[in-house]
Amino acid sequence: MNHTPKRMLIAVAAVTLLAVGCAKKKVAVAPPPPPPPAATPAATPKPAALPARAAAMTPSTSTAPAPRYPNAVTRARIDELLAKIEDAYFDYDKASLRPDALKALQADSTELRDILKDFPDYKLTIEGHCDERGSSEYNMALGDKRAEAAKDYLVQVGIPSAQLNVVSYGKDRPVCDEHDEACWQRNRRIHIVAMAQARQ
Question: Of 3, 70, 139, 149, which has fewest CB within 10 angstroms of its CB?
Answer without folding.
Answer: 3
